[in-house]
Amino acid sequence: MVIVEVVLETHDAADFTAWPIAEPSDDRLLAVSGRMSAADVGTAMAVIFTYNGIPVTRAADLTEARLRHHLAEAEGLIAPGGLRFRDTTADVSVSPGCCCGLESWRSWWHVARGQETWLGHDPTPRITHVGQLVQLRQHSEDSPPIEITRAELSTLLATAQQHFSGFLDLARRWAAITTPRLADRLISALDESFMINTSRQGGEPAPP
User: Fold this and answer.
1) Which pLDDT tens digit goes with each residue over 55-113?
2) Do the Cβ atoms of 14 and 22 come closer than 8 Å?
3) How far apart are CA 190 and CA 175, in angstroms?
4) How would you list the strands of the sheet with 126-130, edge to edge?
């Protein structure tokens, strides 16, 4: 059985103290979904703030003006991560490579349409199209593949969007408690930047 997870690299949350976060996993990848703990949501938000260079010493220090200023300069939020595919039967996984951005997760729809997309490097994920079959590998051509059809990939991408949307709901609750003064603007920025429930005008393709 092949499953998909929306994952966030958590290296940038190291030594973060502005609000409670969870202990990192061994692989430093955090699966985001609507089933996360409050501490895991805090970790995800810590990564997003730190990775985007938004200064925060205490949650109470955050202001909507500061967030608006950053968004105006950066034109959105970015975060390290992407989609991880796992074949639970064969015990094979393919994770996003270094420098892959979670904000580009919708580019997987290119793959579902028989095209290519960049998935990072070191270790470099690889995509091979064989007719309607998609083979995903973490390393070289000799690595064991995860094999799915394009139709199955489309279904998995819809599942990934549901996971991401579930995370956004939890982030909304987290923000209402932790950063109530900028909760609405923050959640709107997350949705727009990571194209969770919406897609940018002229940006990555939305699901068909």
Assistant:
1) 888 888 788 777 888 888 888 899 999 999 999 999 999 999 988 999 999 999 999 99
2) no
3) 11
4) 126-130, 133-137, 146-149
Which residue carries 């950066």 as its tokens?
A: 74
The 10 Å Cβ neighbour count of residue 159 is 15
Average pLDDT (133-143) is 88
pTM, to two decimals: 0.91
- Give, rounded to a whole angstrom, the gap between the first and last alpha carbons of the chain: 24
CA distance 163 to 169: 10
Which residues have CB under 8 Å from 87's CB, separation 6+?
1, 2, 93, 146
Indicate the helix (H) or strand (E) that contains 93.
strand 92-94
Domain boundaries, the chain: 2-79+161-193, 89-158
